[in-house]
Structure formats: structure tokens, C-alpha cells
């Protein structure tokens, strides 16, 4: 029996989209024109101003011929579930039940460590499956129960309620409720991008979470240089800060649009699959160290389209605290998490996997000032989608981190 200790309704789930849904998508792809050639979309610029027209045309043609049903069968090789998670808004007292989709893999080992892995944007559970495959394919010590949810608004999880705001804090609350509802009294959380932000919040707020490993600790270069003595910077640190400055100056417009006019951009992107290809596809080109395979990108994009989850996935950007920066507070616990999410110092064991082509690349010295850093690993390759780009390295980091923070063969986490 799956999740024998669960206290909430959980049912198996199979991804299944109809031939008509896929045919409609392909019709829209075929009928959707590309803009005319311009100076900015010329291939000679190597996507400097966005995807080149040549790349768009090539990928559009491939999407037209893409075999979704083969991809769907591959996705269904993993065990999927839908949980009914009750929620109470602490500000209004409003109650409700949200459906949370997740991939869940239980270890037969009685002392396995429950690990929740959280995706970012523009991700969903699919972003994390390469990491999951490596964890399953390599025996680890300690063994793990793996829970990989789609965040609220993403893929097959509930959209946000129409009568109240969920917000980033609400999503964190629901993810913790999911783990408790599945019967886990203590667990470790791993996350990147938005998932890292949620992981930090969960670790601060909820006792059930005992430790966190993240591959994203956002920062502002000017502040980092003020806090970290210049002599402590290495060449790699300067390269990371340069990457961050590039992103803030050349790649941040999408976030401003999603934060200030989510309804407007939601209409635009969900009206046309080619708009989705341009908006999300450019992230594969600019945010990665090595661009994913075409089939991988098309599976990712098709999931977004068929689940109609672009517009519902960007509400996190409207959160006023969603600058994705972690500031350094005067001392542990100095920031009230009920006010905002910035400045959260993590007293629980914190691990940081650093990848060189992340969007905001944080020096180790900075990471040490944001929490109880007990594990740090710097990698020579990898970008924003580390679980997809470098799953073997991130899997090794997770195993190493658990060996540090989980004691007595998984019976009790370091507190």
C-alpha cells in the first residue's frame, strides 16, 4: 500500500492527453506564423536579443512532428499521484483543499530518509526526473523516499484559487502539509530557483523540515562585495558575479513583466504555442551551460501547453518578496518570516551546490552568511536547470549531504 502512514487522500495518477488535444496543438503550431526577419532575430547575433528566427523555425518544425505519446509513455514510467491537501489561510481563516500532483517513490528500507525535491520556474516535475533517475540508478546510503511535487499552478497540481491569494508563503505551507499528510514526521528538502527559495522558507518555518540542500542562493553583486572582503574573492567568484550582473542587465525583463502584468503576458503566451516557444525556449538557450536535447525541450513545452499552466505558474513573481535575493540579517532569526521572505537565516543544516552558469552565482563566503552551511560543492559545469543538466553531480551532492545531516541510519535528522 502506497504511503501507509498517510492522513490525506492520495490516489494514483496517469498522464493522459487525448489525440484531439495533441491534434489541436499541432494545428496551432502549423497555423502560427513567425515574425518577419529583423536585424535582432538574425542568427549572426547568436540569440543575443532572443531566439534567432532560424532556431525558431527549426524548433517549430520539430514540434510539428514531435511524438507526444511516446514522451507521455516515458513520463508514465514513474509513479504519479494526486494528493488532496487541506489548507487554511492563516491571514483570513479561509479553508480549502488543493490537489497536488507528485511523483512518489518509496524505499523499502524502513529507515529511509524522506526527501522532497522542488522545481523552479519555468519548470515542473519533469525538470527533476533526470535527477530522480540517477538517484534510483545508484544505490545510496542512506536510502531515500523521494517526493517530487509540481508546485501550485504548475502541471497537474491545482491552479491558484480565485477567491484568495496563495503566494510563495502559501505554497511553502502546502508543500509542508503534503509531506505531513503523506505520513512523514521529518524530512529533508532540496530545491533550485524558486524551489530553493521555498526550501529556505520551509526550513525556517516548519519543524518537520530538518535540513535543506539548494543549488541557488540569489544575491546582489554590489552587496556581496560590501560583505565579503575583497581578498577572499577568487577568480571563479568574480566570474560568478559577472554572470549575475549579465543576467540582471540583459536577462531580467521577463521577470519584471511577469511580476507587474501577469494577466497580460498570460493571455499572450497561452494564446499561441509559438509564443510559448519563444518565451520559455529562450531560457533553454541563455540559462543553461549545455542546451538540453530538442526532444527534452519539446516534452517540457508540450507539458506546459497541454496543462495550460503558463499563466497559473507565474504568480510567484508577483510576490513582493520574490526578488529572489537573500539578504544578510543582523543575526539568526532577525527577520520576521511573516513580513517577507528576505533575510531568512537558516539555522538548520544547509547545503549549497554551486553551478557556474546559474543566473545568480553566489560565492561560498556569501552562502556561509545566509545559514548554517555544513556542505558546499563547487562544480565546473552546469547552469540554471542543474537537475536536468547535471543530474549525476547533483545526485552525488544530495547523497553526500544526507550522509552529513542524517544520523543513526536515517532514524533522526540533525537538529
Report on this model:
The chain is of the alpha/beta class and 415 residues long. The chain has two domains: 107 residues, no CATH class; 254 residues, Rossmann fold (3-Layer(aba) Sandwich). It has 16 helices and eleven strands. The strands form two sheets. The chain has a nine-stranded mixed β-sheet with strand order 1-2-3-5-4-6-7-8-9. A two-stranded antiparallel sheet has the order 10-11. β10 and β11 form a beta hairpin. α1 packs antiparallel against α2 and α5 packs across α6. The longest helix has 16 residues. The radius of gyration is 21 Å and the shape is globular. The two termini are 31 Å apart. The C terminus is likely disordered. Belongs to the peptidase S33 family. Keywords: Hydrolase. GO terms for molecular function: epoxide hydrolase activity.
Q: Helical segment tally? A: 16
- Structural class by helix and strand composition: alpha/beta
Report how far the terminal alpha carbons are from each other.
31 Å
Which topology of the largest domain does CATH recognise? Rossmann fold
- The unreliable regions are 321-341, 408-415
Percentage of residues in strands = 15-25%
| Largest beta sheet: strand ordering | 1-2-3-5-4-6-7-8-9
Q: How many whole angstroms does the radius of gyration measure?
A: 21 Å
Domains (count) = 2
> Which geometry do the CA atoms define?
globular
Mean pLDDT: 89
Order of helices and strands: EHHHEEEHEHEHEHHHHHHHEHEHHEE
Helix proportion: 40-55%
CATH architecture of the largest domain: 3-Layer(aba) Sandwich
Specify the CATH homologous superfamily of the largest domain.
Answer: Alpha/Beta hydrolase fold, catalytic domain
How many beta-strand segments?
11
Describe the sheet with the most strands: 9 strands, mixed
The CATH class of the largest domain turns out to be: Alpha Beta
Amino acid at each position: 500500500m502506497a504511503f501507509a502512514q498517510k492522513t490525506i487522500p492520495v490516489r494514483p495518477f496517469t498522464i493522459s492527453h487525448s489525440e484531439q488535444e495533441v491534434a489541436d496543438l499541432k494545428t496551432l503550431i502549423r497555423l502560427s506564423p513567425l515574425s518577419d526577419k529583423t536585424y535582432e532575430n538574425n542568427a549572426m547575433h547568436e540569440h543575443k536579443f532572443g531566439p534567432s528566427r532560424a532556431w525558431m523555425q527549426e524548433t517549430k518544425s520539430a514540434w510539428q512532428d514531435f511524438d507526444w505519446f511516446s514522451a507521455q509513455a516515458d513520463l508514465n514510467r514513474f509513479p504519479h499521484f494526486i494528493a488532496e491537501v487541506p489548507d487554511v489561510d492563516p491571514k483570513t481563516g479561509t479553508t480549502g483543499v488543493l490537489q497536488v500532483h507528485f511523483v512518489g517513490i518509496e524505499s523499502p528500507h524502513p529507515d529511509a530518509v524522506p526527501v522532497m525535491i522542488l522545481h523552479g520556474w519555468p519548470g515542473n516535475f519533469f525538470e527533476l526526473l533526470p535527477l530522480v533517475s540517477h538517484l534510483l540508478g545508484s544505490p545510496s546510503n542512506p536510502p531515500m523516499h523521494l517526493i517530487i511535487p509540481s508546485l501550485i499552478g504548475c502541471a497537474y497540481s491545482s491552479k491558484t484559487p480565485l477567491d484568495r491569494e496563495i503566494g510563495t508563503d502559501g505554497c511553502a505551507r502546502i508543500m509542508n502539509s503534503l509531506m505531513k499528510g503523506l505520513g512523514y514526521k521529518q524530512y529533508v528538502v532540496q530545491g533550485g530557483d524558486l524551489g530553493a527559495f521555498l526550501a529556505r522558507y520551509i526550513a525556517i518555518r516548519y519543524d518537520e523540515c530538518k535540513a535543506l540542500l539548494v543549488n541557488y542562493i540569489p544575491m546582489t553583486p554590489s552587496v556581496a562585495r560590501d560583505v565579503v572582503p575583497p581578498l577572499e574573492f577568487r577568480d571563479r567568484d568574480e566570474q560568478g558575479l559577472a554572470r549575475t550582473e549579465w543576467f540582471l542587465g540583459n536577462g531580467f525583463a521577463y521577470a519584471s513583466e511577469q511580476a507587474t502584468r501577469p494577466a497580460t503576458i498570460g493571455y499572450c503566451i497561452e494564446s499561441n504555442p509559438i509564443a510559448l516557444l519563444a518565451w520559455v525556449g529562450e531560457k533553454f538557450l541563455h540559462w543553461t551551460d549545455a542546451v538540453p536535447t530538442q526532444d527534452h525541450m519539446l516534452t517540457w513545452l508540450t507539458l506546459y501547453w497541454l496543462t495550460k499552466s503558463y499563466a497559473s505558474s507565474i504568480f510567484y513573481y508577483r510576490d513582493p518578496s520574490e526578488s529572489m535575493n537573500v539578504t544578510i540579517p543582523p543575526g539568526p532569526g532577525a527577520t520576521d518570516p511573516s513580513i517577507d521572505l528576505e533575510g531568512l537565516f537558516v539555522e538548520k543544516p544547509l547545503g549549497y551546490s554551486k553551478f557556474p552558469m546559474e543566473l545568480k552565482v553566489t560565492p561560498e563566503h556569501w552562502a556561509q552568511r545566509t545559514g548554517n552551511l555544513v556542505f558546499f560543492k563547487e562544480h565546473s559545469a552546469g547552469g540554471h536547470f542543474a537537475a536536468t543538466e547535471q543530474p549525476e553531480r547533483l545526485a552525488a551532492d544530495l547523497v553526500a549531504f544526507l550522509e552529513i545531516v542524517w544520523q543513526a541510519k536515517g532514524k533522526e535528522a540533525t537538529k
